[in-house]
Each structure stands twice: as C-alpha cells, then as structure tokens.
User: What shape does this take?
Amino acid sequence: MIGTVGLRMGTPMMQYGVSAPPGSYTGYTGGVVPTRMPPSADSAILIQGGSLRTWSYRSPAVEQVQVVLSTEGRPLDADIELWHGPDNTPCKMRVYVENGQLRPFCATIETPRGPNTVAIRNIGQIEFPIAANVIADQVDNPSAECIAASATIQGGALRTYPFDPTVDSIEVLLKTDGRPLNARIELLQGPNNNKQVIELYTEDGLDRPFFCILETPGSGNVVRIVNTAPVEFPMTAGVVPHSINQRMTSEAVLGGDVVLGGDAYGF
Assistant: This one.
C-alpha cells in the first residue's frame, strides 16, 4: 500500500503542435494545453457551432499567445475571451469573417502574470464549424515599421487605411497609454462590404495591446479603425503592409494588369 502511494503521479497534460512517438510522454514544462480535449496529431481543434473550447497552460512564463481561426470557406463568427482569475476578463473580442479560408483570423493576445485561459466560443450555427489553434511559441509580433507608424485616434473618431492590390496581408497594432481600449476594426472591399470585423475590448491598452495580421487578397482593400470609446480614451493605431505579392508586382510592371475596354471593331 505504501509503495502504491509513492508511485502516484499527476494527470499528464499533452501539448498540441509537437509530434511525439505513440505511447510516449514528453513532459513539457510550458506551452498551451487545450482543456478537456483528447490527444490529437493535428494542433487545430474543430469547434462546432454553439460550442466552447478553452486553452490553458502550466507555465507562467508564457506572456503571449497567438490565436488562429479558420474555416473551410464558410463564414466565421466567434467570441474570444481571456480569463485571468475568477470573474475577470481583461480582454475579449467578437470576430466575424466572411470567408474563413480566404481570410483566416490571426491575432496575438498578451497574457502577463499567468496563468491565463483563452476561451473561444463558436457563436455561429451548427453548419459553420471553425478550426481553432492557440500557439505559445513563435508568436508574431509587430514590426518596427508598424510601431513607428502609430498615430493617435481620439475617442469617437475613425481612420481609414487604403492598400494597393499588391499587398497580401497587413499588420494592425492598437494600444493606449494605460487606459481601456475599445475599438472596431473593419476590412472592407468595396462600398459597405465588410469582409472582416473585429470588435475589441481591453482593460489596459498598455499592458495588453492588440496585434493582428489581416489577409487582404484582391484589390480595393481598405482598413477602417473606429475608436468606440468616449473622447477621454484616445488610442494609437499602427497599420502597415505585412507581405507583398511579388508576382503581382512584376505583372504590374510588365503591364499584365492592363484591361482594355470598348469595341475592338470600332463600330
């Protein structure tokens, strides 16, 4: 009986996204751990419509996590919350994407003074499942150009950022001087045609700034950022290109994007 007690161990927790031989336990000390989920070789987890999944981690040294949401071409509608202690939600956002395969959602959430839990709820219908993944290593961070391009947006004001068709993706960085952050980020392609909408709340925009990468395929992409807070709560926004389509750039130089109109016969 004494030997049995001495061999008791805690329940192991599997870290997703790292391959291991079947039947072996790697014993990781950090990383994100989906709660109440069976082990799987694929790091992405399917969340059915109306379902909730949570991600936790054991190491308090993890101060950033990256959330990636996508679909198989269907709309994406989700609620993302960061839980820090009981009844404390320092960061939450509502995300809508018209096509989760063409424009997957990718955002970095600050998780200082862990442990924290990321909760993702699919608020769409049962016909619209989403694939979710939370990554703790190799997290995307804003570039030096994005930080340098930050400009102030007063409470209740908005600012638009048009982009060239050669831009495949852009970086968006929102922060404050320590005050709460309330914002609405829209990706438009055409008049009043929202391709992606993010409604964001952060209790401290300095301690928990918001950073995301928006996919912008095609032409006519415009990012509109609205500071939905009162005038006493200004914020700074930095929006710059993240990746450029070199093939489209070369075609534009060679005249491959020229479109001829009119009647060829001149009648």
